[in-house]
Design goal:
Layout: E1 4-10, E2 13-19, H1 28-43, E3 49-54, E4 59-61, H2 66-71, H3 75-94, E5 99-103, E6 106-108, H4 110-117, E7 120-124, E8 129-130, H5 144-161, H6 169-175, E9 180-182, H7 185-200, H8 204-214, H9 221-235, H10 239-249
Parallel strand pairs: 2-3, 3-5, 4-6, 5-7, 6-8, 7-9
Antiparallel strand pairs: 1-2
Helix pairs in contact: 1-3, 3-4, 3-9, 4-5
Length: 251
């Protein structure tokens, strides 16, 4: 597997880190590994709160792997690939522990979906966001429900329609995607640590019940996101989308 996902545990805080050399993009094997780590953290009694982060400095997550997208050859392969994003979002949704997001740089497509699926998200002022899927002939079908839940239909549709445009970290803060933003990564990390430490000392039963309340109304997402994955899997096979992806890769 190119890239990696791993978890470290310290004083009740489980930190899940992912990395891929192509701007922290997420091929299928990394998506499956990430979902697995989230599920394991949720069932590990040594972990009371989870921090989700990526490695590197510039990009939090570039979303789907274009190499894998262009390699999809049939509907089943397409549905399987996009179901990887569905699996990660649903693992985060059903994790009984709060997940804190640490976004140090730009988030694209599936990366915006990850930032939307954490329970509290810290970011730097460099962490602009973009839902680029329509620009390559698809659409943010799988991540859409998570993004819409966090920022509302209006802001989600703005990102989805203006698929080539970046929205600033300040914009994401105002829309509710980010809870706090910082000029310096060091300041963000200090705040991540402070909140994670406080939560690790809080009542785990109360946090579990609160998380269930926060995510109420999403119980159908196991089915919904699978259906959305099938839509993306079908669209990625079109000639339009294949040409768009090749053109995008060539830039």
């Amino acid at each position: 597997m190119e890239g990696h996902v791993h978890t470290t545990v310290s004083e009740g805080v489980g930190t899940i880190s992912f990395f891929h050399p192509q701007s922290n993009s997420l091929p299928g094997d990394l998506l499956r590994a990430l979902a697995g780590e989230v599920r394991r953290a949720g069932s590990d009694d040594a972990i009371r709160v989870v921090v989700l982060r990526s490695e590197g400095e510039k990009t939090f997550c570039a979303g789907a792997s274009f190499d894998e997208l262009i390699a999809i050859r049939d509907l089943e392969d397409g549905k399987r690939f996009f179901s990887g994003f569905a699996e990660v979002i649903n693992a985060m949704r059903t994790c009984p522990k709060f997940i804190i997001g640490r976004v140090q740089g730009k988030a694209v497509g599936g990366g915006v979906g990850l930032a939307s699926s954490v329970d509290y998200c810290f970011a730097t002022t460099r962490s602009s966001v973009k839902l680029s899927e329509l620009a390559v002939g698809i659409g943010p079908f799988v991540v859409g429900p998570a993004v819409e839940r966090k920022v509302g239909v209006s802001a989600m549709s703005q990102m989805a329609i203006h698929a080539t445009e970046w929205h600033s970290a300040q914009w994401a803060l105002e829309k509710g995607l980010y809870a706090e933003i910082f000029d310096r990564t060091e300041d963000m990390d200090a705040s991540v640590h402070a909140l994670a430490t406080r939560l690790a000392a809080s009542n785990p039963d109360a946090m579990r019940e609160l998380k269930a309340v926060f995510w109420q109304g999403t119980e159908h997402w196991d089915t919904l996101l699978t259906e959305r994955a099938a839509i993306s899997g079908r669209l990625v096979l079109s000639t339009f989308t294949r040409n768009a992806i090749e053109a995008f890769k060539g830039k």
